[in-house]
Write a structure and sequence with these properties.
By secondary structure, the chain is of the alpha+beta class. It has two domains: 89 residues, no CATH class; 229 residues, BirA Bifunctional Protein, domain 2. The protein contains eleven helices and ten strands. A seven-stranded mixed sheet has the order 1-5-6-10-9-8-7, with helices on both faces. Strands 2-4-3 form a three-stranded antiparallel sheet. A hairpin with a 2-residue loop joins strand 3 and strand 4. Helix 1 runs antiparallel to helix 2, helix 1 runs parallel beside helix 4 and helix 2 runs antiparallel to helix 4. It is elongated and about 110 Å long. The model has no long low-confidence stretch (mean pLDDT 88).
């Protein structure tokens, strides 16, 4: 029995040393340790031996298995090292060749404008507030002084999921939620995000677009604070020589309400095709927070005042980059996006 194991051991060693690939090595390993190996046949005869012989043969079988395993590991390491050495000898790198070019992406223009506006307001001490895009009618309309049947609701042809839930038509619900959470504290926030209205898609309208709205609430807040804030925004966004003007307007959630224009940054107010020869470009709507909105959110309008404003990100981007079709922001045309 021991003689058979010694012969098998020598045979296995010679077979292992003779292979040159990992695949062949695995075949040899299976040949001498697998379920159909000569070793298995030897193990079947152990039952016919005496107890003393069984002990001796068992030790030899274990030694044989350990030896084969060790020899295979040594050979595998050697084959891998030889393979690496051959690759080092045969494969050369020409360091003078040009490297592989990996295309580099860029920030989408709407994201870039959003981040720029956020940075401006963060620099003025504002915080960023966010909220859900699927909103309750209560927050989207009623707590913004737009109860059921209010004629101003016709301004928002909305996507309703059910009578009480819709895709938000502006980011103003974020302001309402923040006021309710803060419960009478001073606020200074901006609310960026996507909004949805059932507009016909054309060069200046989209059923989905982006807004940034702002809200300031305190005990001493005035229209002059609003004008100073928006003047700073206009200078940072469109140039230090920009001026703004207020025009009376109407929004249900502010009183008084204004439309805000900035002097044309292309012609410096002289009149051109961009500003339609008026010298001014409309950029956003704003106003003092309506007392009803303050009251519904838990603020005493006899103590607290505030101002709010809102602008379309696409509107600002179209003015900044002189883009004449809002739809190009959403068609994912690489030729367009590469310009930014």
């Amino acid at each position: 029995m021991n003689q058979k194991l010694k012969l098998l051991e020598q045979e296995a060693k010679d077979a292992i040393r003779g292979v040159s690939t990992i695949a062949k090595l695995r075949e040899v390993n299976s040949l001498y340790l697998g379920s159909k190996s000569p070793l298995r046949e030897i193990m079947k005869t152990i039952k016919d031996l005496t107890n003393e012989e069984k002990k001796e043969v068992g030790m030899e079988i274990n030694r044989f298995k350990a030896m084969i395993t060790e020899e295979v590991e040594i050979k595998e390491k050697q084959i891998q090292e030889d393979l690496i050495q051959r690759r080092l000898e045969t494969e050369e790198i020409d360091v003078t060749l040009s490297g592989t070019s990996f295309p580099k992406g860029s920030i989408h223009p709407l994201t870039a404008i959003t981040e720029e506006i956020e940075d401006i307001f963060i620099g003025m001490g504002y915080k960023i507030a966010e909220g859900p895009e699927i909103e309750l009618d209560t927050y989207n309309f009623e707590m913004l002084n737009l109860p059921q049947g209010h004629p101003a609701r016709e301004m928002h042809d909305s996507f309703y999921i059910n009578p009480n839930v819709l895709l938000r038509t502006h980011t103003s619900p974020v302001q309402v939620r923040t006021m309710l959470e803060e419960k009478g504290k001073f606020l200074k926030i901006i609310c960026p995000g996507r909004v949805y209205r059932r507009d016909n898609d054309d060069a200046t309208h989209s059923h989905q677009f982006m807004q940034i709205e702002g809200l300031v609430i305190g005990t001493v807040v005035s229209m002059s604070d609003l004008k100073g804030t928006l003047s700073e925004l206009a200078k940072k966004m469109f140039g230090e020589n920009r001026e703004i003007r207020f025009r009376p307007s109407f929004f249900p959630f502010t009183e008084p309400s204004v439309e805000v224009d900035v002097t044309c940054f292309k012609c410096n107010g002289k009149g051109c095709s961009l500003c339609k020869n008026t010298g001014w470009i409309e950029i956003l709507g704003a106003g003092m927070v309506h007392p009803n909105v303050l009251k519904m959110a838990g603020y005493d309008p006899d103590i607290y005042q505030g101002f709010a404003f809102g602008m379309g990100i696409e509107r600002v981007a179209m003015l900044r980059y002189e883009i004449d079709d809002i739809r190009v922001f959403y068609t994912n045309d690489v030729r367009f996006l590469k310009q930014f």
